[in-house]
Amino acid sequence: MPGTKAQMNYTKTLAAVVLSGLLLAAAPVLADDAKPAAAAAPAATTTATPAATGDSSPAALPAGSVLVTEEPDIPLQSWSFSGPFGKYDQNQLRRGFQVFKEVCSNCHSAHLFAFRNLDEDGGPEYSAAQVKALAATYQVSDPTAKGGKRAALPSDYWPSPFATEQDARDANGGALPPDFSVLAKARGAERPLLSWMRDIIFAYQEGGPDYIHALLNGFHDQVPANIVNADGTPFKLPAGKYYNDIFPGHAIGMPPPLSDGLVKYAKGEDGSTVPETVEQYSHDVAAFMMWLSEPSLNQRKESGFRVIMFLILFAVIMWLVKRRIWSNVEGH
Question: Which of 4, 156, 255, 294 lies at 20 to 30 Å from 248 by C-alpha?
Answer without folding.
Answer: 294
